[in-house]
Amino acid sequence: MDGERKAVMRVRDLEVSFGDNLVLSDISFDVYEGEILVILGESGCGKSTLMRHMLMLRRPQGGTVHYGDLNLVEASENELDRVRRDFGVLFQSGALFKSLTLGDNVAMPAREFTKLSEETIEELVSLKLEMVGLGGKQNLMPSELSGGMQKRGGLARAMVLDPKVLFFDEPSAGLDPVTSAALDHLIITLNESLGITMVVVTHELPSIHAIAHRAIMLGKDRAGILAEGTPDELRNSGHPRVNAFFHRERLEENGAA
């Protein structure tokens, strides 16, 4: 894959710390055009922190994050604002504004960042809601939506400006297994039909096996990448901590690496 596909994002030697606490160290990997890359690992290993630094919501202590030819670490705020319009983000909760209808939530990025007419924006909102299985529900308030529907609404909003890269932060968090499987299916369908590059943070094994083209696993006690490859390659990696994660086994700490 590496020789055949274009790297949309390149992370090199990333280092992140909070005070004296080193969270991420020597993090290097590529995100390829059209793939679903999963960032996985145990709770507290820095998965969401890595995603936030890829989005440059916080600048790292060291290393680089390239989007195309632009080094985001050294980019100006104006450059970052332009780049972020190529990114869509689905946060854990869906992050819908409770005081706005679903339609107004989805329309918000288009109203803020484009000069499209209101009629065009409404058509765009209808299209995106249809794509996530929420057609005709524009006038519902977030409180009238189930958890799964709120996630889909958040996804429609993340897609409204036709992003080149979609980021998902624990998309299955708080969902029952059936709803989670339906969201996994939607992610796969959107990736295959639209060719959108996706970066997904999760620790849910069923989702990892269902959606990931490739995955990187972060270490919890060692602030780096433990393994990289397909889910099957990671499952059979031979690394004790990676094996324990994929086989749901208790890890003897004196054998951890």
Helix and strand arrangement:
Layout: E1 7-18, E2 21-32, E3 36-40, H1 47-54, E4 62-67, E5 70-71, H2 77-84, E6 87-90, H3 102-113, H4 118-131, H5 147-159, E7 165-169, H6 177-194, E8 197-201, H7 205-211, E9 214-218, E10 225-229, H8 231-235, H9 240-246
Parallel strand pairs: 3-8, 3-9, 6-7, 7-8
Antiparallel strand pairs: 1-2, 1-4, 4-5, 9-10
Keyword list:
alpha/beta; Rossmann fold; 2 domains; six-stranded mixed sheet; 9 helices; 36% helix; globular
Outline:
The protein is an alpha/beta fold.
Describe it for me?
It is built from nine helices and ten strands. It is globular and about 55 Å long. The protein has helices at residues 47-54, 77-84, 102-113, 118-131, 147-159, 177-194, 205-211, 231-235, 240-246; strands at 7-18, 21-32, 36-40, 62-67, 70-71, 87-90, 165-169, 197-201, 214-218, 225-229. It has two domains: 7-86 and 164-255, P-loop containing nucleotide triphosphate hydrolases (Rossmann fold, 3-Layer(aba) Sandwich), CATH 3.40.50.300; 96-162, no CATH class. The strands form two sheets. It has a six-stranded mixed sheet with strand order 6-7-8-3-9-10. It has a four-stranded antiparallel sheet with strand order 2-1-4-5, with helices on one face. With 257 residues, the chain is α/β, with parallel strands linked by helices.
